[in-house]
Amino acid sequence: EPRSPCCCLAWTLVIGTINSLVFLLNLLLMFVIFTVVLLPTIVVVYFGFQCHSQVLHSSASYCKSILDDNSSSALIILGFVIMSPLLVVAMAIYCSLARRLQLLVCCQPYSLALYKGAPCCARGRNTQLKAWV
To answer: pTM, whole model, 2 decimals?
Structure first.
């Protein structure tokens, strides 16, 4: 049964808000996971760029006593080399958590705003129609 125009507008705003919150939750989860997993790469590349004389050339004591230009270059190269496998690990962790928490299933279709009916998450889920296993 179709909804009235005012009710349709209200439900459109509610469904849009729910979908935006689910999107922001996915984005926050992805940001946290990628930051934690890529932290070794971030640290190594940061120290490499910080201590290299052609880039930032910090006056910190560890830059003068431990790291010269060759070791700073090695740190930069090492950081970019270990980034690829860590990106794969971060994406696998995110996909596993998103599937386990069923975050992508919670997006509501806008057809619920036009017609009265039960929300998609409230109906019985058919396990045969999953997008992934």
So the answer is: 0.69
